[in-house]
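pasting DUF218 domain-containing protein for the record, 223 residues
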Amino acid sequence: MPEHQQRQITDEQFHDATLIWNYHQMGHELRPCSAAIGLGSHDLGVATTAVDLYRAGLFPVVVFSGGNSPTTRARFPRGEAVHYREHALSLGVPDEAIIVESKAANTGQNITFSRELLAEAGVEMQSLLLISKPYMERRSYATCRKLWPEAEVVCASEPLELDDYIKSIGDEKLVVDMLVGDLQRVIEYPKLGFAVEQDVPGDVYDAYERLLGAGFDSRLIST
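structre below
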């Protein structure tokens, strides 16, 4: 990451983004689970993290879930889950430990369709490891608690600080836009019936409002 004076965003904006980044991560203690779901996105780090956690013995089977989307089609033309599977295979995960769910177009479908495939595969589910982008942990948790309330949910993501994640993506403005967009979804989705409600601390909400006012809004949904 460049030094602060080289940033395209201000130090104050970076501080606000860091508050939101930290809020999005659930801080769960990882433990063995019945199965995992790797949530498809533009971020191949999700698949890499799934490989690391599989090797650590935290689950026997993973569903890679995700089809095509406007933001991932160029990078993963055959679909997010297909590319995730290929990446995991290249790193030594056996094919029998991978289930591919290639139709989901949103997080709710990721969870619903993956649940169906795990049932079809005869996996007895008590607990679920949800693997996502770092800033998507809280939203995926809230969505899963709404759609699969009986499952014990543990959230995981690639262990990165915001600086390192920005470096991996290469676009500071886009990353902050994504942080703001996911927080908007955490706030709004419970009203739409998509997720359970999550408490948003005052300092996090204030940071969100400041970043919205500064124009970090390309990833918002219409409300």
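Residues 11-24+161-214 form one domain.
Residues 20 and 204 are 6 Å apart (CA to CA).
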